[in-house]
Amino acid sequence: MIAALAGGVGAARFLDGLARVIPPKDIFVIGNTGDDTEVYGLHVSPDLDTVTYTLAGLADPIRGWGLKGDTFYNLEARRRLGVESWFQIGDRDLATHIFRTELLRLGLKLSAVTFAVRRKLGVRSFITPMSDDPVRTMVETRAGLLEFQDYFVRRRARDAVRAVHFHGSEKAKPAPGVLGAIRNADAVVFCPSNPIISIGPILEVHGIRQALLRRRGPTVAISPIVGGRALKGPAAKMMRGLKLSASALGVARLYQGIVNVFVLDNEDQAMASKIESLGMKAVVTDTIMSSLSKKKALARAVMKALD
Amino acid sequence: MIAALAGGVGAARFLDGLARVIPPKDIFVIGNTGDDTEVYGLHVSPDLDTVTYTLAGLADPIRGWGLKGDTFYNLEARRRLGVESWFQIGDRDLATHIFRTELLRLGLKLSAVTFAVRRKLGVRSFITPMSDDPVRTMVETRAGLLEFQDYFVRRRARDAVRAVHFHGSEKAKPAPGVLGAIRNADAVVFCPSNPIISIGPILEVHGIRQALLRRRGPTVAISPIVGGRALKGPAAKMMRGLKLSASALGVARLYQGIVNVFVLDNEDQAMASKIESLGMKAVVTDTIMSSLSKKKALARAVMKALD
Q1: pLDDT at site A117
Q2: Do A73 and B83 count as a contact with CB atoms less than 8 A apart?
Q3: Going by DSSP bridges, is the β-strand pair A27-31/B144-147 parallel, antiparallel, or unpaired?
Q4: Distance between CA atoms of residues A251 and A231, nearest Å
């Protein structure tokens, strides 16, 4: 069994390849919920949904969020009511958020809701939030302390990031099965996600970092940074703002001690020896997942590195 | 100023005519909220919305609920999640319910939300719920005590009605402005709505019946029953279930003492003298609102009866 720590789009692409290379039911996805937010009074879990929709074959391939072919009539009607709507939710996507909010208000846990959604959408991999307790990623900028979606969606990640905080992480307990999966997995994979705001919050949940430190088997990370650029999202810019090297090496440094195999792109092979000096095995391969065959090739390369 | 007690479709049609015959801003609509319900965890106010959408020119003319040209993609997606969805909500209509629910959760009153919605949709008549406190119409049938929407939508009004209860009505206070409007209106109009479950709950709100009893000016009711059939909905069947005469006369009896002008259809003119013997002036006219010009003609006939 493979346990995968996952953010949004980058993770979803990698997992889509992985689920075509190993049996989907052997994948246990631990999703970031630091980006979760309340939108229109509804509980939205962007990263969990991106992974779920992608593995269900329903994700919009162009936008990088939401459902393929979704419409936005509710949003139009919402604008007519004069309400701010910088956070766009499609008509079909909305059903997920309404369903999730209903069940949470009835007292169900986010993990139970996530289970129900992925099952109903036909996803055979297990997907769970990192925690059923709220963790909220807050971004410190010159414009003040911003909720993640405010920073990311409304302000389009334009603010220089001075610090990142994960409100609630010290009190958050791992969701059921998470620690066991990390302990017992044949391998733990850090998906190619933003190390600060996608993998970072997962590592801050009480007990998860320790479980990773105590693991004996392989823990592999795939760099989301190639040639100093993020494959997707604000990772590189954010790392520079935090005075970190926006490179595969910078990512590897963040994972030192908990990761023992590090996958980086051909473009960055010059960094391999420095990464190895951090105590990791460096695996150089093509990490750009621009097609289904490339996704599968990366998944195969990762599986091979684990042998 | 005209104060109008209103249910759903029948009331909305009448008010649509009235707002073309007198200045819309001179109409103060007191809407039934006994049919309100929680759907998908959202607060739905069917009668308030039907009136608001109709006066905004946005109502679906065929279905009798929801918005013209609305789509149901959220509902499709909801079904894919495996959730019961006998209560259909269109994608655009959903925006109203989400907006309402958001504001109610923030602590706003239903009257404030209703004000905001009708203003944003360009409705110049004032529309208010009868009360900001919850009143829930419960229908006693052989199948048990049913929530109104369960009886009406899910079970399609097929159960014989033994009794109707308005949970919460004894504690419900009239919404701001309601008692003043009833006291000071040049006329109060009981729209052609179901006397049991549309007008009935309004009369049960604390102080409303008494305010009507104390009024000096005219109070006019328009019969929703023509020739023993309801213009819309289950009124006739419901009245028979309650051992009431399903006729204009039966409706007039329910309003005896609080209504002094009763408008009935040409088809029922034989009942006029019996209605007059209840202490009301009977006005016989065409009450079938099958076209815009007929709606306006009915509104003019009502206004004339008030002189």
Answers
A1: 97
A2: no
A3: unpaired
A4: 13
* The dihedral formed by the CA atoms of B180, B182, B185 and B186, expressed in degrees to the nearest 10: -150
* Shortest Cα–Cα distance, B91 to chain A (Å): 5
The ipTM value here is 0.88
The separation between CA A128 and the C-alpha centre of its own chain, rounded to angstroms, equals: 12
What letter represents residue B106's amino acid? L
Compute the distance between CA of residue B248 and CA of residue B264 in angstroms, rounded to an integer.
6
Kindly tell me if the per-residue pLDDT of B84 is higher than 80.
no
Express each pLDDT in B8-58 by its tens digit.
999 999 999 999 999 999 999 999 999 999 999 999 999 999 999 999 999
The label of the residue with tokens 């939108």 reads: A39
> Amino acid identity of A277?
S
Q: What CA–CA distances, in Å, run from A105 to A113, A118, A218?
A: 11, 19, 39
| B75 vs B115: CA distance, rounded Å | 27
Nearest CA in chain B to A69: B73
DSSP 8-class letter at B172: P
User: Is the Cβ pair B41, A94 closer than 8 Å?
Assistant: no
Task: Tally A–B CB contacts below 8 A.
Answer: 95
Please name each of the domains of chain A with its CATH number. Answer: 2-138+169-306 (3.40.50.10680)
Cα–Cα distance, A115 to A211 (Å, whole number):
23
Cα-flanking dihedrals φ and ψ of residue A12, to 5°? Answer: -60, -40
Alpha helices in chain A, H assignment, sequence order: 9-18, 46-55, 73-80, 91-105, 110-120, 148-149, 178-184, 200-204, 208-214, 235-241, 248-254, 272-276, 292-306
Find all residues with CB under 8 Å of A62, minimum gap 6, and list them. none
